Amino acid sequence: MVGGDGGAALDALFEGFSQRHPDVSMNDVADENLSLEVKSRILKESPPDVWMEWPGKNLKPYEDASVLGDVTAVWEDSDMEQYYLDGPREAATFDGTYRAVPLNIHRINNLFYDVRQAEELGLDPATIDSPRAFAEELRRIDAETDHTGMLFPMKNPWTVLQMWETVLLGEHGHETFRGVTDDAAAAHRRAIVDALDIVRQYAEVATEDKLYLSLTDANERFVDGESVFFHQGDWAAGAYTESAQFDYGTHWDHVPFPGTDGLYAMNMDAVIAANATDNPETVSTFLSYVGSADGQKRFNQKKGSIPPRTDVDTSAFTPFLQEQQTAFQQSTAQPLSITHGLGVRPDQLIELKTAMSSFVSSWDPEAVADEVVAALDTSA
């Protein structure tokens, strides 16, 4: 069972699988609301053999319900363990048992910038070394120039949540980030407040329509030259590569978000197997292909993402994605995104989005930090 997003990428994956295994038939069910459909079938005790889902803590309800299949043998009978880094492997396991096969990765902590505007302002984005220093630079741009420092869409609370988790990672480091997501949020409350305060500072110099600005509209306006910077996951670059007047390296470029150099904050999709299936050999064969270099090359080239395997030939990928793959391979850690469900449970994610909705109404870091701690720290 597959979702509606990335149809061309899934077609490429299935085509490659059919070429490798012409004797194996696979029936896929496309559904625009995949998660709801899977849950409905699980409740009816008729889950699909395999489906695509965010891994990590997003899978905790399935794990608690004993729905997930043990796919450890797929990992151990192949070379997957050798070519997956720790972050994707962590997202695929519960208590040492593999429950998923990650298929693609999107980087969260990108800071895109308009090359010509940065040069005009005498800016080298790579020298901005922390989220707080970035706030100071945005204030300087706002006070001393006629440029917009950074477009900041807030129409949907997830973009604010993503900004906050990126600032938390960049300002306070990976260890604190992990503590916040691993039931120790109360112990790191000051870091949570500080990150919220820095996000508030970004909002103060954002455009007046920020609360009504969608991600798509903001991204299009960045392409049109309306701001120096734009923070977003690497999926935003799809619009850049499609624009004939917005060339990589000439008109736009990117750096890791300030303070996050060497860290590769991840969103990803994975293929999940049900605990009960009438076709265990077929499922294992398909999962092995999903975890193969050939399968991941085919899928990610179409999806505009990078493979979690480190040995995939990306020479046919865009230069931007090739650089993303290099950064992934050289990263010292691969934090699991909060906003995209890998680093927190689904119920926590709902509460965090609610907290961010409160934040853009009050801009009160102290009060909203209490909501964040309550959502994340089970001992609070």
UniProtKB/TrEMBL annotation:
SUPFAM superfamilies: Periplasmic binding protein-like II. Pfam families: SBP_bac_8. Gene3D superfamilies: Periplasmic binding protein-like II (3.40.190.10). This is Sugar ABC transporter substrate-binding protein. It comes from Haloarcula pellucida.
